[in-house]
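Help!! Second protein's tokens look totally different from the first
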Amino acid sequence: MNTHPGLTDGPIYLDYNATTPTDPRVVDAMLPYLTTHFGNPSSGHTYRTAPADAIARARAQVARLIGAQPAEIVFTGSGSEANNLAISGTILAGTRTDGRPAHVVTQTTEHPAVLAMCDALRRLDGVEVTYLTVDAEGRVDPRELAAAITDHTVLVSIMLANNETGTLQPVTELAGIAHEHGVLFHTDAAQAVGKIPVNVTELGVDLLTLVGHKMYAPKGVAALYVGPGPPRDPLIHAGGQEHGLPARTENVALIVALGAAADLAAADLHAGEPDRLRHLRDDLHHRLAEQLPGQVLLNGHPTHRLPNTANLALLPHRGDDILAATPDIAASTGSACHTSDTRPSPVLTAMALPGEQTRSAVRLSLGRWTTPDNIALAATQLIAATGRRRGTHVDAGQTR
């Protein structure tokens, strides 16, 4: 496996859930659309041809990765934009005739983009929001969803894979329940697409978000799968690009990058990359557990989770203290969206884990350039740091 040029001199990178290094092959694919093929794909002359063809090709590549049709793929500038479009577009397009407010169901461990959008709709448009709880492993109980749906529920939005724990939700079952009640279903699959096989037909979802920088494309590009159904209200009101939803001039180079990344992800899945990462992830966990008996707890589901993710509590130490003591490891204590927040992870708190366990959490996420040597060295350094801090205990009654 070739080393990524951005990883040769830095710490061991175990933060792939925060962002992935852009694959050099993706960079090669996009460069011509920053230089030679600069035309506006909506123009009426020949300079539009190469960019327009490239967008069409990328749309087909992304669609193929998730089992969709090209016409069902809408390109956006970020996963947050795609989530906002899916939720607000569905809610605002579904004008009710009985005067009752629309109702949306989500869950407590969703990505902040989904939670913030739901809260904005509640505050600004009077939309009713129900937040489903999760169990100690981070999963929603399908029976709770069935009980939460009312006759004015318009949308259910439940993520496929959690960005902190990697826990996978039973989306196929949840989407089936929503459809039994005539309700649309959206899933934020930003962390899942490219890491595990994802097929929109098998999942039974109406809307699905995927994100470029979680699958080795640059930041600034994402896509929303929009299946057959009622019209969506545009997020940006302008021209007719992208079916008039995020209507703006397309960023051709980034869209090409996302298409190239989708093809590479499909090849990785076919070649068994999930199994390789699962083996490395479990090796890291086992090394830590063997050398730190009784001190290592898994946060999340032991089997229903992403193959690259291990969210571990390294008791009795604070996760941020452990990472500060291991500068040669680049990892995190939770979502990159909360890096500056030193309070316990909202995700782990929603799972009702003990305070000591949430404050000891470290998220270790692997990816395309993670090697067995990386894992062995990371384990050695984490064990050494934990040993150096032995005797420094977390005060379970203290909050941060």
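Here's the second one for comparison:
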Amino acid sequence: MLPIVPGPPPLDLAPSAGAVTRVDGDKPLVVWSPVTRAHVPSAEVWVGVVTAGSEVPERVDAIRVSLEAAGHRLVTAEPHDDSVLRRVHDAALVDHLEVVHDEWMASEIPDLVGQRQVVPYAFPTEAMLGGLPARRAVAVHARAGQFGYDTMTLVGPGTWEAARAAVDCALSAADLVAAGAPAVYALCRPPGHHATRAAYGGSCYLNNAAVAAQALRNHGHRRVAIVDVDAHHGNGTAALFYARRDVAYGSVHVDPGAGWFPHYVGFADETGAGDGAGATLNLPLAPGTADRGWTAAVGRLADWVADLGATALVVSLGVDAAADDPESPLLVSVDGYERAGAALAGLGLPTVIVQEGGYHLPSLGGLVAAYLAGHGNGR
């Protein structure tokens, strides 16, 4: 049984609450929601072993406290309807995530085996189906595998609310940028770049960066570029825009060919398809790569975005490439993140910065603050 651990209580953040219509100062505005703390992954199942969850609610607090100390203004996300979300994701996935935990708790599974979080156990892969048509599974414990593609990404009682609040953070940030803010940071949690059109996984449920990019398109930007600096390839974001030319995707990440998630994709020869040919750029790096190689790759992505003629930028800001982070073998420093922020700010594009990974709580907030300092100083 994986126990349900209550999340920390909401913090009193009244001084930083409220929406804004314009941004003053050089520091990027921060959009957040206390509801993003409602998702409590008490554990993960990795190669059949129950391990402690790393994508914890305390990530929000670590980042928020550091950014307030650094002088950033925080505002709460505004609620949005599902129109952009359902443009990015298949409606079946959205509907599934909204109700699956309630359906799970209403089934026999909690009493039968004591499992109170949704964990897939069977997956209708192409290899399993062998060309046969896939039907909607009747049993909820089977249906979980139609939408979740790994056993690490559990769904609990607050998962939907937190993931949906993260989407509102991304959409609110896009609104502020469309209204004239040069750069806005969305404190999204859970992260999103591993979520595909019709599936969730990799600790991601809804793709916040993709939602932000689509919102910027809806606001009138002709071409949006997404630059993903998370330690792992954003397979979900890449897949969503792989055949589109209006949204380009570039990523620097640890080489999946060296045995790292997402394993099957994220290689340099993946450059887009159809209308999106040439609109994807993957820069996989060897384990042990530190500031010099990593920042050079970020600089290459910045040059690529400039050549694309993009009119807006979305940054998937994972800080799990940092040396102290337990989830990757890259060795980027605080200075490396600040330099990356300056390089991408140098593009001069209106920018939404979306939080992705980063799991070492003692250094997490400082790493995000360093990137934002670079982005602010680089404008």
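Reply: Different proteins will give different token patterns, so don't panic. Strands lie at 29-32, 43-46, 49-52, 74-76, 183-186, 224-228, 247-254, 280-285, 312-317, 351-355.
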